[in-house]
Amino acid sequence: TTGLLKMGLSCMSSGRGVLLCMVSTPSALSEKGLELPQYDGKDRVLDINDKNYKKALKQHSMLCLFYHEPIADSKELQKQHQMTELVLELVAQVMEEKDIGFGMVDSHKDAKIAKKLGLEEEGSMYVFKADRVIEFDGLLSANTLAEFLLDLLEEPVEIIGNALELRAFDRMEEDIRLIGYFKSEESEHYEAFKEAAEQFQPYIKFFATFEKSVAKELSLKLNEVDFYEPFMEEPVSIPGKPHSEEELVEFITEHRRPTLRKLRAENMFETWEDDIEGIHIVAFAEEEDPDGYEFLEILKEVARDNTHLPELSIVWIDPDDFPLLIPYWEKTFKVDLFRPQIGVVNVTDADSVWLEMDDEEDLPTAEELEDWIEDVLSGKVNTEDDDDDDDDDDDEDNDEDDEDNEDDNEDDNEEEDDDNDNDDE
After folding, report:
1. Between these two residues, 10 and 306, which has the higher pLDDT value?
2. Model confidence over 338-381: pLDDT tens digits?
């Protein structure tokens, strides 16, 4: 289950969450060059069946298949399915010139085809590219899906050839990224690096350089590959150069979970499902807000000082990235997201415990955050405490109800006694 996120997104639509984007209303004042696409009404999304799936795979450079549960009788669920289909139709229209096809697979009606193609999770989008199948594990909005597909169309490795490109690389602190130094594009070691990149595209970014000057700036030796964890100041050199494709894939898979990572629309469900023993440490902070920026810098400091702890993984959420989820999160967690927050969240039932900040004007220091995180990792702070508090509240409510019932019974007994006295008279 995607737990918290799926519950929150159910208010938008079904399955993985559907958000209709890029739909504009015509305006007499609209200028050429800023006319957002509108669905033209043409059916481009195929109803995939046993007769057409092979042709669809051959016909397109990439084929996107949405695997869904059977269409229900409920009008509400039917409308949600129509919204999903409309999102796919709009993206199919925009991507038509890119030779990307779209289809829908019913998990009941087309169960045999789904099994052949390896489709497993209802509500997921699967992208077929050459001999690879990539699962899109993000918010199913037109914008997010289009961006994901455009990233897939790019080369799996980007070449860094000068100081300006290197500066851009250095600024990508939110991403997991790798960079290697190779003799040329014909190098067998570069080829292995490229093959490994295809396994993780577009979720992990791969870079390479063939320039000695760039390699010198990065302190890279020939055939050496550095692994950059998000928000860390220094990379980790992958040991045992030169590397085979298998060795690179194994290392990346083992080190893929960062100490601090940002929740993003394009892989939000993958991130949320990658919990540690059913919980996440979640931090809310608006990067463009002064307090949020300061809190994020404190989080980075804590992450850098504790990156050696394999059980520590903090998910940073910028509320500005998910405006439709803000009311849900505030109601569920009982926190104010207009100021920074950090807490422990159970991904199954969304129970949570949040760090109490004594002074609303002052943010916790790095030392105070580290102490709290130690309590979380040791189990002193956990979501079961929240359950106990809820139980205590329930007990108090029950006690109050019992007292009210006793008072009512006493009043009833007094009234009965008065009635009996009147009868005797």
Report:
1. 306
2. 999 999 999 888 899 999 986 667 899 999 999 999 999 999 98
Instruction: Please answer whether residues 161 and 214 qualify as being in contact, where contact means their C-beta atoms are separated by less than 8 angstroms.
Output: yes
Residue 366's φ and ψ, nearest 5 degrees, are -60, -40
Domains of the chain: residue spans and CATH: 3-21+39-153 (3.40.30.10), 157-254 (3.40.30.10), 260-384 (3.40.30.10)
The letter for the amino acid at 385 is D
SS3 state at 128: strand
**424: Cβ contacts below 8 Å, ≥ 6 apart:** none
Is the model's pTM score more than 0.85? no
Nearest C-alpha neighbor of 376 from the set 311, 319, 327: 311
**Tokens linked to 55:** 């042709």
The answer to whether 363 touches 268, Cβ cutoff 8 Å, is: no
Per DSSP, the three-state class of 342 is: strand
How many C-beta atoms lie closer than 10 Å to residue 184's C-beta? 7
Give me the phi and psi of 165, to 5 degrees please: -65, -35
100: β partners: 62
| Backbone angle region of 345, left / alpha / beta, with phi > 0 → left and psi within -120 to 50 → alpha | beta
How far apart CA 333 and CA 343 sit, in angstroms, is: 9
Listed in sequence order, the DSSP H helices in 100-185 are: 111-117, 142-153, 163-170
**Closest of 342, 336, 267, 290 to residue 312, by C-alpha:** 342
Does residue 33 come out as left (phi exceeding 0), alpha (psi in the -120 to 50 range) or beta?
left
CA proximity to 87, closest of 153, 29, 136: 136
Q: By the 8 A CB rule, do 169 and 220 touch?
A: no
User: Measured between alpha carbons, how far is 325 from 332 in angstroms, rounded to an integer?
Assistant: 10
Between CA 372 and CA 375 the distance in angstroms is 5
